[in-house]
Design brief:
alpha+beta, Aspartate Aminotransferase, domain 1, 4-stranded antiparallel sheet, 4 helices, 4 strands, about 45% helix, globular
Length: about 130
């Protein structure tokens, strides 16, 4: 643990990882994801986010599938944005290794309507005086 407890701080711990119940739940979720073909639609959904999340306060948009990061000027600005989004019902956070980046990591089965709502709320918060 001495080598895994920093960079980032506590970035390598997992309370229930490997537990039999957690493994069974993970396997069940994987089977549903395969049956429902959620993975096949990931890159289209990524593009839906990317096409809508354009704003002068966003310094860059980084993504790989539905793991998305919006980069802002600094942590203070990002934290204000995150707090406003949480108030609006959008669960997000920053990255331990990049405090200036807002993390968007929705479930694979997110609907187009939910993507549109999330993007609308993000843009609305960005338009406010932050």
């Amino acid at each position: 643990m001495d080598h895994l407890s920093f960079d980032p701080v506590l970035g390598h711990i997992n309370t229930f990882g490997g537990h039999p119940v957690s493994c069974a739940a993970g396997l069940a979720a994987l089977r549903v994801a395969i049956r429902e073909k959620w993975v096949e639609d990931v890159f289209r959904k990524e593009e839906r986010f990317k096409s809508q999340l354009k704003h002068e306060k966003i310094r860059s948009f980084k993504s790989r599938g539905l793991m998305i990061a919006l980069h802002f000027d600094d942590f203070d600005q990002n934290k204000k944005i995150i707090d406003k989004l949480i108030e609006a019902g959008i669960f997000t956070d920053w990255f331990l290794f990049a405090a200036h980046a807002l993390r968007i990591a929705p479930p694979l089965n997110i609907s187009d309507e939910e993507i549109d709502f999330a993007c609308e709320m993000i843009l609305k918060v960005l338009d406010e005086q932050i």
